[in-house]
Fold this protein.
Amino acid sequence: MESIQSIKQRFEIIGQDPKLNRAIEKAMQVAPTDISVLVTGESGVGKESIPKIIHSLSHRKHSKYIAVNCGAIPEGTIDSELFGHEKGAFTGATQTRSGYFEVADGGTIFLDEVGELPLTTQVRLLRVLENGEFLKVGSSQVQKTNVRIVAATNVNMFEAIKKEKFREDLYYRLSTVEINIPPLRERREDIHLLFRKFASDFGQKYKMPTIRLDEDAVELLVKYRWPGNIRQLRNIAEQISVLEENRSISASTLNSYLPHNVGNNLPAVVNAKKTEGDFSNEREILYKVLFDMKGDLNDLKKLTMELLKNNDSQKVQEENKNLIRKIYGDKDEDIEDHDSSPLEVLHLPEPTVERTFTPAPPEDKYHFAEEIEEEETLSLQEKEIELIKKSLERNKGKRKAAASELGISERTLYRKIKQYDL
């Protein structure tokens, strides 16, 4: 059996990081078997090297090796690409075509970005993994295939499963053995080695002297976070090799090629976990504000009507003290110490005794306004029911806590629960 170092030389893998060595070792151990393998890691870490190692060390090495980028194939044609199609199966299918699983029979298929597969294709792939059977698009004849599947993804599979974007049963079939490739920021000692290798390659490719980094530039290179990993490092090395006339690169020169939209390159702590019913969603926040405004408006209408119907302003003020406090604040002095009448507190004109209310004219003068109000109320009502349900679920049915969260009284919440039959 070949050593890890010989495998690195053979596949041009550079680095001595223990995590990288462990990933290569696992690939060498599973290669002689037909176990399906899932390679995980961030974009640009070099996941495509692992399936090549597995295929070259397996008994399938003399058969075909096909690499498929699942994220690059349109959803409407991916089933045809993978499993083939019959003539006339869809518009443009002028002849029968063999898919990758038929062509690679006896060999290995590498499914890169497998997390981007549509759910319907995932069902077909699961059947291939379970019993080696598949159907061409537009055919009813079951075909058999004997392929080794190695998949790779940079997606958090557990999050994808939770969001129902990836089948859980397919994940466990693919990840019989999972191999993780560490990001470049966790392989600090390998960064300068990789840069020197890329610089040497581009010097030969473009027939230029190889660029070299000053000590300060090396320190900056190692401290940088490299969100694009090896792919980004290679890109930077190529840019500098082509554009810089001075082949000795200083820290300031290197810094001019590094993206500056990552701040100080320090990891940020982000709480990405959100409960299903919280108010972090902007639309829900907007709806909640609208509910509060709607409630305040209804309270103002009620108070104004009481004042217009009753000439005894002092009596109205006493009877609706809690309502006025709710609208204008919790401080009693805002109301009690005010020398003006409650109507002035509300910034409304004093009603006159002579004022009368005439009925609306028979013509449909306000038809347009009424239609808008009815449509808006319906959508707000649906959203209000949804928010009440979520609040009750979060607070395990405790109305007092739910009412406090929604910014309404417990009595109002109880009335709404009865009104909406929740």
